[in-house]
Amino acid sequence: MTNLSWKEVDKITAELINKIKTSGFKPDYLVGITVGGLIPLGMLAKSMDMNTVVTVSANSYKGQKRGNLNIAYLPSIDLTGKKVLLIDEIAGSGETLRQISQILLKQYKVSELKTAVFVISKDECKFLPDFHIVETTEWVVFPWEKRKPTK
Fold first, then answer.
1. Residues 11/143, Cβ–Cβ less than 8 Å
2. Nearest residue to 110 via CA among 39, 30, 34
3. 146 in any annotated domain
4. In which domain, by residue range, is 78 found?
5. Residue 147 forms part of a structural domain
6. Which helix (H) or strand (E) holds 103?
7. Per-residue pLDDT, 92
8. What is the tally of structural domains in the chain?
9. Residue 150 domain-assigned?
10. How far apart are the first and last CA of the chain?
11. Alpha carbons 49 and 136: distance in angstroms, whole number
12. Does 39 fall in a domain?
């Protein structure tokens, strides 16, 4: 298990912003996957000086056990022709990112979509995000999480 500190998260955020800027991608909207992606969404939005921010509520975990993706909320906003950066804190299998990406491309008809996370699960991630910083095989606990989830 890896416990990240706020200082480490600040460093990861700065590195992620640098990667996004260096790529030349300039999103019109930031879309965060709740609940885990809320804090990364806020940190990236503030760092990128963006206020066009929306959320999607989706989850595929109960504790540390992965299940089917449950989508609880999709925004009622017109993103047709917009460039979107989809944000989450971690890509375990990458399945949540993959499915939400497909929804944004097909249903919302975004013109360009990129994905960003702080961490990927090196051994399990099948859908690699466009931007990430940390690669690990361990369970990651972020500073905004109280403890390791129960099984």
1. no
2. 30
3. no
4. 2-141
5. no
6. helix 95-106
7. 92
8. 1
9. no
10. 14
11. 29
12. yes
